[in-house]
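[Automated response] Your request has been received and processed.

Submitted sequence:
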Amino acid sequence: MPTNDVIDLAELQQELIRPGGLWHRVDLVPETGSTNADLAARARQGETPGTVLITDYQSAGRGRQGRTWTAPPGSGVAMSILVRPNGIDPPRWTWLPLLAGLAVADGVRRVANLPAVLKWPNDVLIADRKVCGILSERVDTSQGPACVVGIGLNVSLDNEQLPVPSAISLAIAARELGGMPPSRTAVIATVLAAFELLYGRWEAQAGNDASLAASYASRCDTIGRQVRVVLTGQHSVEGIADRIDADGRLVVRTASGSAAYAAGDVVHLES
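Generated structure:
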């Protein structure tokens, strides 16, 4: 990874934007509060789906459950994508953050040769430590509903820069595991290319998401573990994470039977 890891916007535009492709516009800003908030506002003003907004520094990034997400300038990837699924009912949109997580995991494996896996629903882990978080939000516009998916990925942070001890960066993982520390430009290009492939497959399947569930499960480190699922109001359920169903829900087996969960914070209780 170069010492001064500048994101190359021209290279990204050349690699990602093509006739008939998903990506129509790629923008880079030096600093903003939240790429999700900015892109949602642009969507309400008529921004075209297929837009990517990247920033070098995000001062008010948000994660799931209202958590904050921050990283030093130039140390990570903070980007949001705007999509409007064609002919797909909004109930199936719960797959979008899962697709993004799978794209990040596959992209990191390709570009960095690191064993990235998923913690349901959409955290990306390396060596049981979080390297990426994802937040999706529905946006209602005059052209109909759309979805903004935000991705925050730690790239070059050192140990003293990590937000919590349970986090990791690609640079730290490469030192510890022998992978390749990639540039942020390469990470962004590879992840967005992976998302485009997965998104096209999802749109084409017309509601038959069983094969996507199988692909997701193959990367999901939650499956087979003893877990605690923390639900709204801090109610929680413990059991064995059994499988991912065709709706992307986590099926948990307990002493009283199995139940599927569409949302919740998962805690891995054993390695």
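Summary generated for your ticket: The two ends are 31 Å apart (CA to CA). The chain has two domains: 9-216, 223-268.
If you did not submit this request, please reply to this message.
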